[in-house]
Task: structure prediction
Amino acid sequence: MAGKAVFRFSFGPWNIHDGADVFGPPVRKKVERAQKLALYKKLGFDGIQFHDDDVVSSVDVPHDQIVKEAKEMKRLIDGEGLIPEFVAPRLWEHPQTIDGGYTANDPKDREYALERSRKAIDIANIIGTRNIVLWPAREGVYVNESKDHRLASERFVAAVDMMLGYDKNIRVLGEMKPNEPMDHAYLPTTGHFLALCYKTVDPSRVGILIESAHALLAGLDPAIEMAYAIYHGKLWSVHLNDQNGLKFDEDRAFGAVNLKRAFDQVFVLWENDFGASGEFVGLDVKALRTQKDDVATRHLSNSRKIFLDLVEVVKKVDRKKIEQLRAARDYEELEYYIVSCLMGRA
Ligand code: 3MF
Ligand code: MG
Result:
């Protein structure tokens, strides 16, 4: 039943950055934490997403220190009127996550990942969200024979079960990506993680965050992926962005590469009342390295604008006409109709 969608927007502090990439140093001034927080509302965003170490300066400190810093961040976001959407354990930068987290070969590394996940849950509780997002960046292989793949699946489920047992209120959302930084990621797509949800001790608390670019990198269509997760009642967040073909994860502004593909995502979200249960529209977009300091948030405000403009197009699309063209099996005309809507001609 369409008509109940509520679109509130969120992003993470990493979406405002200095432009450094793997081939070159920063090209913009570092934006300090307080400056970033002050930008959210100005840019039209109500929700904030966090890695564990976006909340606290380090997780490898005594628990009291984590609690103190997390409370301080809670005070800051409350002061800005921001809603925390999720906390994600950053299991890809620390020396003990070189070989992955939950699926690392060394038991000490696996224990580090589990302990860090428990800390992320503690931080989420202090900051005021029940959502833990897992982007399992380094769970996978460069060399096929380097891990026991069956055992990796078992370990992954055990890690999620551990989190569900550690806190009976939290929810775990998988954000799947097929490659980068790994050659082959374990659980590369939404479908893989969905199957895992049902193997856990409490499937009702395990769901999905879909990132458009991640689906595209897997050769899949983001809108169809989203609809599939919605069918399972498991689309609990999205990371909208765009992607120009099968290369590195570009995190381009939403709709900037393929407007029709963006329309299709908005259409699915609108038709299925996305946001009516409090879900956020996350925009995981990256400023181009060429942007100057004073215009280095355009990717966020433009993505939001494009999304909202597409909502207007979606609302106007003639559903009867779509039904008629479907019934007549005239999909060429249907395609033309949608393209003309997007060109403002229909
Ligand atoms: C990588 C991503 C990540 C996740 C983030 C939150 C750094 O391609 O999309 O961004 O979105 O870690 O889970
Ligand atoms: Mg993302």
In short: The radius of gyration is 20 Å. The mean pLDDT is 98.
